[in-house]
Amino acid sequence: MILDLFKLENKVAIVTGANTGLGQGICVALAQAGAKVCGVARRSCAETKALIEANNGEFTEIIADLSSTSPINEIIAQAKNAYGKIDILVNNAGIISREDAINVTEEDWDRVIDINEKVVFFLSQAVAKEFIAQGNGGKIVNICSMLSYQGGIRVPAYTASKSAVLGLTRALANEWAAHNINVNGIAPGYMATNNTTQLRQDNQRSEQILERIPAGRWGTPDDLMGAVIYLSSEASNYVNGFTLAVDGGWLAR
After folding, report:
1. Minimal CA–CA distance to 94: which of 111, 108, 110, 115?
2. Would you say the pTM of this structure is higher than 0.70?
3. 100 and 149 in contact (C-beta within 8 Å)?
4. Please, what sign has the CA dihedral across residues 172, 176, 177, 181?
C-alpha cells in the first residue's frame, strides 16, 4: 500500500535543534511516523521528550553545543549507543543575527556561519560515513530558508549560510546518491517560532510579511510535518538534491 512507504518503523533519526520550534515539531512528526528519535540541543529537550512519550514514542536527548564541530563524534556515538544505528539526519539547528550589513562584526559572522553551514556539512559527512558503513543508505534533510533564494534585510550572514546549505544539499546529493543516500532540503517560509519573535512583534514588518503570503498567515511547526516525513521515508527514494518550499506561497508571489 502506498501509505506504507511513509512509515518509519525501526528507523532511527537524529534531529538538531530539537528542544523548541521547528526542531521540536520535526521530532514529534518523526516519532509519530514510527521513528526512534535522538534530539540534539544545547538545552533540555524535556518538553519534546514529553510530547513524544505521551504518544508512546521513543526519544533520547543528546545535549551538545553545535557552535563548533567538536561534539559531532559524541553525537554519533550516543545515537548508536541508544538505538544501534542511524537512518535519518535532519539538520535543523541554526541561529539568526539581525544587524545592518555595514555593522556586522567578524565574530558575529563566524558564529552564524559555523552553526548554520560548517557544522551542517561535517555532521552530514559523519552521518554519511555511518550510512555507508551500515550498507543500507539513509536520508539527510537540511532545513534551508526563504533566504536560500532571496537576500533578506539585515541578515547577511544568515542569508549567506542558508544559500550555502541549499547549494550543499545539491552537492552532497550528487556525490552520495550512488550510496543510496538521499540528501534533500526543506525551505520553511515565515514561521511562528522563537527565531521570528522580533519580526512578529514589529507590527509594521509583520503586516508587510502577511500581505505577501498568499495563505495569509504565519506558518507553524505542524506545517512542516508532512514534508519532513516525505523526505525521510521511502516515498522519496528517487528524490535527490531538491529543496521543497513550505512557505504558504511566498516564493510564488
Report:
1. 115
2. yes
3. no
4. negative
Where would I find the H helices in 84-233? 106-113, 119-134, 156-176, 197-201, 203-212, 225-232
Question: Chain centroid to CA 214: how far?
Answer: 24
Report, at the CATH architecture level, how domain 9-247 is classified. 3-Layer(aba) Sandwich (3.40)
Per-domain boundaries in the chain: 9-247
Give 202's pLDDT tier (boundaries 50, 70, 90): confident
* Helix axes 106-113 and 156-176, enclosed angle (nearest 10): 30
Q: Which residues are known to be catalytic?
A: 158
The predicted-structure confidence for 91-109, as pLDDT tens digits, reads as follows 999 999 999 999 999 999 9
pLDDT digits (tens, 9 = 90+) for 139-165: 999 999 999 999 999 999 999 999 999
- Give whole-number Cα distances, 34 to 20, 56, 137, 193, 245, in Å: 20, 10, 18, 25, 24
CA atoms within 13 A of residue 25's CA, in its CB half-sphere: 18
How many CB atoms are closer than 10 A to CB 176?
22
Whether the predicted pLDDT of 195 surpasses 80: no
Name residues whose C-beta falls within 8 Å of residue 91's C-beta, 6 or more positions apart in sequence.
Answer: 16, 120, 123, 124, 140, 141, 142, 143, 165
